Amino acid sequence: MFSSIKILPLIPKHWVEVKKIYEQGLKTGIATFETESPNWEEWNQSHLSICRFVAIQEEKVIGWVALSPVSSRCVYGGVAETSIYIDEKFQGKGIGKMLLSEVIASSEENNYWMLQAGVMPANIGSIKLHESMGFRIVGYREKISKLNDVWMDNIFLERRSKVVGID
Predict the structure, then answer these.
(1) Is 117:129 a contact under the CB 8 Å cutoff?
(2) Helices first, then strands: H and E counts in the chain
(3) What is 2-160's CATH number?
């Protein structure tokens, strides 16, 4: 299965499929606090132009990962937040590890020393995926945001690079 999967840079032509996978995540109620998917322009503006990838099998996008800046302040220029979504038919098959491996390597090539993720406690698969890739739980954010008028919690994870920002 893995030999037929390609990891490629996420470009505008992938947007329709990327958005479809994101909307699958919206429907679960445990992937994001958002309730609607953005259009390409909004999504593109809110994510870094580098460090964004898709997993493709048989010319179909089956997962994606991208980084967002955590702050506009220059002192946090090497810190980014991960977003990763896998098509529901391909979850639990190692696609997330492939994508996170790629974005970690790319982030370090681009001088990012810290990646962070906020994951809802019910999204155990995402928590385990991040932990398997070197992220550690550093906090629990109680009632950090509302989803459909219900206060929701968030597990805060981070991964410190062992090659960038170590001096």
Answers:
(1) no
(2) 4, 7
(3) 3.40.630.30
